[in-house]
Amino acid sequence: MPKLEYQTAGESHGPTLVCTITGLPAGLTLDMQRINGELSRRQGGYGRGGRMRIETDTAEFVTGVRLGKTTGAPVTALVKNKDSRLDDLVRTPPVYRPRPGHADLAGSIKWLTTDCRETLERASARETAARTLGGVVAQCLLREIGIETFGFVRQILDVRTDVEVTPDNWNKVRAARNESETYCPDEKATEQHKAIIRQAKIDKDTIGGLCETHIFGVPPGIGSCMDWRDKLDARIAYAVMGIQAFKAVEMGLGRECASRRGSDVHDPIYYDITKKHESSLGFVRTSNNAGGTEGGMSNGMPIVVTGTMKPISTLLRGLPSVDLNTKQPEDSQYERSDICAVSAASVVMEAVVAFEVARAALDKFGGDSMLEFKDNYERFLETARILPLDPPENVIA
Ligand code: EPS
Q1: What is the CA(180)–ligand 1 centre distance, in A?
Q2: Is residue 102 within 8 Å of residue 120, measured between CB atoms?
Q3: Ligand 1 first shell, C-beta below 6 A
Q4: Is this model's pTM higher than 0.85 or not?
Q5: With the CA atoms of 27, 30, 31 and 36 taken in that order, what torsion angle do they form, in degrees rounded to the nearest 10?
Q6: What is the mean pLDDT of residues 161-173?
Q7: Residue range 5-385, CATH number
């Protein structure tokens, strides 16, 4: 059973969101600036709705932390909702006309009610504030072993940036992303994204796009091919598809692999002794079409994941639907919402991918305290560097 787990609770318009994390080693320093900074970034991005002007998401740790460090006990943190009005039937009325693309219809039938609110309060992307919190705690853990994460917007509607992200330039690209109102490290694309979102607002429509996450410094051998449930790419795909409104996930070249020959897909392996002390252990590639995993394990290259977010299903102009009480045709009900939340989703995706890498790293290196975890990590790298362990004469060429 994986050691590290997280779970969220809380309704979109209830009093609070909750994130519970179990399996964290003792002695992990929680970087509150980073945690609250990412929560705040998740609230931003061009095209968000009125709710984001009401909330100021901040993490309040209520269990498992003493003097700013984890104790090894389950960690619980809250993100309180200012717009809390779940039992106010005037301001938070029942929803009888399900939105195509939303959880409304399936959830109402599943829980045997005609009031979609019962479902939508939990299906709402507000929940991602709690998941982001858990993911950023995982980012704090990964940083302790030199693993860094970076997420951004690659595309909104049909406007895509071709910016390349490498271990050498990502800090510069991140600075450009931080300047962008759509979290896209490309000034021209950002302006086009904003125009697209403005037009969608006029048209009472919504917009989706592509988010990308890169993880640097992951050594080879995290994840496993021995049990399909431990495959790192599979875990990452599960986590990304679990984000509200995500419809596809790709590793590296992704779907493009289907239209290329093997010689044009697989990343040739070289050994560079000068890089022996880096997390790749010196095994370098001239391309990263695999996106950093082979056989469900990290291969020492950056992990690269792309997620597709569909346009938000709450349209101001409504879409053809049915009143669940009368069964008569009606347009779907409008609830205050966003026009485009791809920028926010890029923060969520970076967080949930980080959580999966942290989980796999803990599965491999273990340890009840950060001291032990880091020590195990270092010892593994030291041993891997001196391979072959057998005397050379016993190695069959
Ligand atoms: C959402 C609807 C909107 C969004 C919300 C997701 O909320 P409200 O109905 O309160 O205006 O703002 O996203 C968030 C609140 C958030 O924190 O991301 C939906 O239906 O999914």
Answers
A1: 22
A2: yes
A3: 12, 49, 51, 83, 124-126, 129, 314, 335-338, 344
A4: yes
A5: 180
A6: 97
A7: 3.60.150.10
